[in-house]
Specification:
The structure holds 2 protein chains of 2 kinds.
Chain A (H helix, E strand, L loop, with lengths): L8 H19 L20 H7 L1 H4 L23 H4 L3 H5 L15 H4 L3 H7 L38 H4 L11 E2 L2 H4 L22 H7 L10 E2 L2 E2 L1 H6 L13 E2 L8
Chain B lengths: L1 H20 L18 E9 L2 E2 L1 H8 L6 E12 L4 E10 L4 E10 L3 E13 L5 E3 L4 E3 L7 E14 L5 E23 L19 E25 L2 E22 L27 E23 L4 E26 L6 E4 L1 E2 L9 E23 L2 E26 L12 E27 L2 E24 L9 E27 L2 E18 L7 E20 L2 E18 L5 E20 L2 E15 L9 H4 L3 E2 L2 E13 L2 E13 L15 E16 L2 E14 L8 E13 L1
Parallel strand pairs in B: 16-18
Antiparallel strand pairs in B: 1-3, 1-32, 2-32, 3-4, 4-5, 5-6, 6-9, 7-8, 9-10, 10-11, 11-12, 12-13, 13-14, 14-15, 14-17, 17-18, 18-19, 19-20, 20-21, 21-22, 22-23, 23-24, 24-25, 25-26, 26-27, 26-28, 28-29, 29-30, 30-31, 31-32
The chains are: A mainly alpha, B mainly beta.
Chain lengths: ~260, ~725
């Protein structure tokens, strides 16, 4: 008869610790640093002036950028340190500007996630722009080096929604019959970073439309929108489903936003 | 057993001692693995072996189900002379259909020329709709769903010393392919009875979950020329941009496919049992929308630094666009008759509603004048002010002539009109809007370890909108024609937006940084009718209040904690000429995110992040009460997800990485199916992967990664679930 010894909890814990230790022993002679992204192993900060030597086109208007107005970096770097986003630049300077010695946020969003960490969660959702798959970069929609991060805001020259309609031209208009929600911006209905809902919608059902179209003076079991009770219509599903307000971005044939 | 414990315990202590004694910083990186950015090629392959919905897996992972193999990256860089460099980049990944060819030549103090073509594919699935009552699962027909985005570009810059900088840019961007749409058609195949023993079901049996797709054929060309010159401390720029858009997109329209309303009509009294599958008539076709637009934009900008503390900027812009629009929406309806099923484009019966079949052609013209001016002040070392204002004048006019096509179908005889009824339907609109938008930003750093900031931007946009629309509808009882009606609108618009933000950054030391801010939005959109619409009123008042806190804590060199919390409430209210002001929306969102990074020594890092989101939008529910509460509930969009990443050195030439992800949403409420369509997102995902990077020489690096992905989609009734292993290998060679 064979007696099989089952490992105890302590055995597992200390066994794992020993394995960890052996791993470290095997590596202790290795002169290489593993750092969580987006940091650069072995690099030290050099300050903004070094960056301006070669990248004047990026630094020249940084004073107008949204990020110039917030403290980002180590106090030693000043409030608008390039290296706050691009990583310590000593190796980059020493190598004469090679790409692998500096962080390029266009290729990896980890830099942006250092502060905008909730965006990593949103981009991880199934309905999101392809930033984590490398199809897009944060810089495709936001310019961190000049002006407002959200184009069309405030006194900037760009038009509102220009960020989205550069690619999504079919939704740009102008339309014969427009949807005024477009004036509030595409983000009224979509979360461009990611959503649990298809098409990155902030809501998947009729609540999306009723947010602005619900007339609630009468509440006796009816759902008023456009002066009509939509209760039975909402039984079917959303307002933009077939047969109703399909042309939700704007229509050339119907002020009720049918195609 | 005891002997074993006696061995492991000191081993663990040894491991712990090693852990603590490791030096976190080393100056040299003599064993660093090479990373290639010039003169190298990276060849890779990836694949997955999925059980379940391969379409859903393809969309979620953006990895082709047939696998991917090819050149992931290629670079060739050469110095053509002491001052001239050439660079070629490439990518060719069949399967993923990701391709790139980029060519660039740059000469110091002269300029650069670059050209290239880039395309990549985005996969979509045809999950369509699911109805839980009878487990009705309606995917799109099996067909490839993907969109290819392509871009051809040529850029040239002439930047001679002490001379104007000239730039030229041409871009041709395309989007081609087919993707799913949420414009789902309705069906009665829901398993819900439309009758009881004594009466009809008060709840409609129809639900909208017939999937649709949209076929994209979009092109956008941009040609731009600009010149920039600096005179002392003043820089001026002039640019001319031409844009041409050519879109022709088609959307499938499917309603009640496979269903036929009984004929002759079944008497309503006494109540007759009507089989659910025979309660409607199929309605199928395509809706094609085309737009060709030519636009020109001329922009001039000037910025000048008047002194160390004052700089000014300003710009003017004019944009003119002319567009041609076309549309073709031809819907075929089928219905039973005494002679069997009959079909017709825009088919209708006596006093019946036609399915809006039409063609349209027209034009849209838009002119926009924009100007802005601003000043940046730095009255002291600690205070920075920016004041700017934008004015914009927009004029849009659109005209089109639609032709509705309606075919009378006689169910008694089975005859279909050989000549459809054609109704000309002119539409036009004119929109004028004048925007005035000032903005103020301020920042103060005069308090030790504290930075304060604030901003206010306001937008006033009075405007005028007039339109005329012509549409068709059911004709009078007994007639064999549809009725044509004309509508019009004359209204003045007043938009007022006020956005504010105020906050501060407190950095008491290197251990802790806290950033906190409050933000508000106060928006009002007001529409007042005049002329034929005198007395009409619609006012939407929309307010947002929120707060955000971001904190970075580094209690030790090996630990970093980053926390961000956002709370936001949004409320909207609607007032009309008929109904008193009432709340239309009450939204709440709380999100908290945490990233923890632990770097115990040079050889390993551990980074974990997690996000919790509570997000709900309430409109009619529960305020409307009664039966209304059955057909609509709050929109809950809650979820949490997380990511764990561990990287460690294995030996002198090998690194390894372990990654795990998790996602959970639980907003799906199938019981809503009794009265409405349950859309809430519900599901769970997790993935784990292990990867190794190994250096074979200073010019050869290889990478291998294996993983497992498991996805469960409750909203689709499990029909979009998938799971299975994924693998990726690559090799990089420098030359």
């Amino acid at each position: 008869m064979t007696i099989r010894h089952r490992p105890t909890k302590n055995t597992v814990i200390f066994g794992a610790a020993a394995a960890w230790g052996l791993l470290l022993i095997s590596c202790v002679a290795v002169n290489r640093t593993m750092l969580a992204p987006p940091f650069i192993a072995g690099a030290t900060f050099v300050g903004n002036k070094e960056c301006m030597e070669c990248h004047e086109e990026k630094t020249g208007h940084f004073g107008s950028a949204t990020h110039a107005k917030v403290t980002l970096a180590d106090a030693k770097l000043g409030s608008t340190g390039c290296e706050a986003c691009h990583g310590a630049g000593s190796l980059h300077v020493k190598a004469g500007g090679t790409k692998t010695t500096i962080v390029n946020p266009m290729k990896s969003p980890d830099t942006c996630f250092q502060c905008h960490l909730e965006k990593r969660g949103e981009f991880s959702l199934a309905n999101s722009h392809g930033v984590l798959t490398g199809k897009m970069g944060c810089g495709d929609c936001h310019n961190p080096h000049e002006g407002n991060m959200v184009r069309g805001k405030g006194a900037s020259m760009e038009s509102a929604n220009e960020t989205c309609t550069t690619c999504h031209t079919a939704q740009k208009g102008p339309f014969t019959f427009k949807h005024n929600a477009m004036k509030e911006g595409c983000v009224s209905c979509h979360n461009p970073h990611g959503s649990v809902n298809q098409k990155m919608l902030v809501a998947r059902d009729a609540n999306l439309c009723l947010s602005c179209h619900l007339e609630t003076a009468t509440r006796s079991g009816i759902i008023l929108a456009g002066g009509e009770d939509h209760r039975t219509r909402i039984q079917g599903g959303t307002c933009w489903s077939a047969g109703c307000h399909e042309a939700i971005h704007g229509s050339h044939a119907s002020p009720a936003l049918r195609y | 057993m005891t002997a074993k414990n006696n061995f492991f315990r000191p081993a663990g202590l040894l491991a712990g001692a090693l852990l603590l004694s490791s030096n976190p910083l080393r100056a040299a990186e003599s064993d660093a693995l090479p990373s290639f950015d010039e003169n190298y090629i990276k060849v890779s392959a990836a694949g997955m072996d999925i059980k379940g919905s391969r379409a859903a897996a393809q969309r979620r992972t953006q990895l082709s189900k047939v696998g991917v193999a090819g050149i992931e990256a290629f670079n060739l860089s050469r110095e053509l002379s002491k001052v001239t460099t050439m660079q070629i980049d490439g990518q060719a990944l069949p399967g993923a259909e990701d391709y790139l060819l980029h060519f660039r030549v740059e000469k110091n103090e002269v300029g650069s020329v670059e050209a290239g073509y880039k395309t990549f594919r985005t996969f979509y699935d045809g999950v369509g709709g699911f109805f839980p009552t009878n487990n009705a699962w309606v995917p799109l027909q099996p067909r490839a769903l993907y969109v290819d985005r392509g871009k051809f570009y040529v850029n040239a810059t002439l930047a001679l010393p002490k001379a104007p900088v000239f730039a030229f840019r041409y871009t041709n961007s395309t989007r081609d392919g087919r993707k799913d749409s949420t414009i789902w058609g309705d069906t009665s195949f829901t398993g819900i009875p439309n009758y009881s023993l004594s009466s009809l079901n008060p709840v409609s049996i129809a639900r909208k979950f017939l999937p649709a797709y949209i076929q994209l054929d979009e092109r956008r060309e941009v040609i731009e020329g600009s010149v920039k010159q600096t005179f002392g401390k003043t820089t001026a720029m002039l640019s001319v941009v031409g844009t041409r858009i050519d879109n022709l997109n088609s959307r499938s329209v499917d309603r009640f496919v496979g269903e036929l309303r009984p004929f002759p009509a079944i008497p309503a009294n006494p109540v007759t049992i009507i089989p659910p599958e025979r309660s409607n008539n199929p309605n199928v076709g395509f809706d094609t929308q085309g737009m060709k637009e030519n636009a020109w934009t001329v922009t001039g900008r000037v910025e000048s630094s008047l002194s160390e503390t004052v700089s000014v900027y300003g710009g003017v812009s004019y944009r003119s666009s002319d567009g041609d629009i076309t549309a073709s929406r031809l819907i075929t309806i089928t219905m039973p008759s005494n002679a069997g099923p009959i079909s017709g484009i825009g088919g209708f019966t006596s006093a019946g509603r036609p399915p809006y079949s039409y063609t349209t052609a027209g034009t849209v013209k838009m002119d926009i004048y924009t100007a802005n001016v601003g000043v940046n002040l730095k009255p002291s070392n600690d205070l920075a002010l920016e004041v700017g204002v934008k004015a914009e004048d927009t004029n849009i006019s659109a005209n089109n002539l639609a032709t509705y096509v309606s075919t009378f179908m006689n169910q008694t005889t089975g005859l279909v009109a050989t000549t459809p009824q054609r109704d000309l339907a002119p539409n036009w609109s004119k929109v004028l809007q004048k925007v005035w938008s000032p903005e103020v930003n301020a920042r103060y750093t005069g308090i030790k370890k504290l930075s304060l900031f604030g901003s206010v931007d306001y937008r006033s946009a009075p405007g005028d909108e007039r339109h005329l629309d012509t549409h068709i509808g059911p004709g009078p009882a007994g007639s064999s024609v549809v009725a044509v009606a004309v509508g019009s609108k004359e209204q003045r618009e007043k938009e007022k937006y006020l956005n504010t933000k105020v906050g501060g950054i407190w950095a008491p030391g290197s251990l802790l940084t806290v950033r906190a801010e409050l933000f508000t939005k106060d928006h009002e959109n007001r529409f007042e009718g005049y002329g034929v619409n005198a007395g009409d009123l619609y006012v939407l008042d929309y307010d947002v209040f929120g707060a955000r806190v971001t904190a970075t804590l580094r209690p030790a060199p090996t630990w970093a904690f980053l926390t961000r919390y956002t709370a936001q409430t949004g409320k909207a209210a609607v007032l009309t000429d008929v109904y008193a002001r009432g709340d239309s929306k009450d939204a709440k969102r709380h999100s908290i995110s945490e990233t923890v990074t632990w770097t115990p020594n040079n050889l390993v890092f551990v980074q974990g992040d997690v996000n919790f989101v509570y997000d709900t939008i309430s409109t009619a529910y529960p305020k409307s009460g009664g039966l209304a509460n059955d057909v609509l509930r709050n929109a809950d969009n809650n979820y949490w997800n997380g990511n764990l990443l561990v990287g460690f050195v294995v030996d002198r030439v090998t690194n390894a990485q372990i990654q795990a992800t998790y996602y959970r949403a639980n907003n799906y409420e199938p019981s809503l199916a009794a009265a409405t369509m349950p859309y809430g997102a519900g599901g769970r995902e997790y993935s784990v992967s292990f990867g190794v990077t190994r250096k074979f020489s200073n010019r050869w690096l290889a990478n291998a990664k294996v993983g497992y992905f498991d996805s469960r989609n409750d909203t689709m009734g499990g029909n979009a679930n998938f799971r299975g292993p994924l693998a990726y290998v690559s090799t990089q060679h420098a030359f």
